[in-house]
Amino acid sequence: MADSASRSGWRMWLRLSTAGLGVLMGCLVFFVFTFGYGNIAAGSWALVSAMFAGLVLHLHIVYRVHRLELWYSAQRLAVLRGISLGGLGISLIVTMYYVYLAVIQHQQSASVSYRDSFVLASVWSFMTVKWSAGLAYFSHKYKVKIEGEREYNTF
């Protein structure tokens, strides 16, 4: 009963909608900031953020429709967790670097053109931090769930 509620309850719908919104906004911001404003750094980090959000969305979708074990093995989820932890470390360092650059150059969000804004780049690199941390968390959670549901044959 608790398993079916976790797959179709309001928390799952909230997870699906936030991850879908993350993919949508990341892709939209990639095109707007990269091609519209010329801020390659912010646009690139938005695209990377959308990719991590897309992986989180895919994990939630296949879990919800009871197909997680068909798409991901426990080993593949462990690899996915490792990749997301690497992405978390890199994007956290880059976020701190962009904040540092914005502070030493006295940039404010409204006073600088979008093309040269380190504030916008730091926001989207932080979104990558958030989605890579989410991917690490959910890939570990679903890995533990798969290992717990595995049937062991003693013969």
Q: Output the radius of gyration.
A: 18 Å
| Count of separate DSSP helical elements | 6
Q: Which structural class do the helices and strands define?
A: mainly alpha
> In whole angstroms, how far apart are the ends?
31 Å
Overall pLDDT metric: 89
Estimate percent helicity: over 70%
Instruction: Report the portion of residues in β strands.
Output: under 5%
**Counted beta strands:** 0
SSE order = HHHHHH
Sum up the overall morphology in one term: elongated
The largest sheet, given as strand count, sense and whether it forms a barrel, is:
none
Low-confidence runs: none
Question: Could you please describe the fold and organization of this structure?
Answer:
By secondary structure, the chain is mainly α. It contains 6 helices and no strands. The longest helix is centred in the last third of the chain and has 32 residues, at 118-149. The chain starts with a helix and ends in a 6-residue tail after the last helix. 35% of the residues are buried. The mean pLDDT is 89.
Task: Provide a concise account of the structure shown.
By secondary structure, the protein is mainly alpha-helical.
Topology:
Elements: H1 2-8, H2 10-37, H3 40-64, H4 68-71, H5 74-104, H6 118-149
Helix pairs in contact: 2-3, 3-6, 5-6
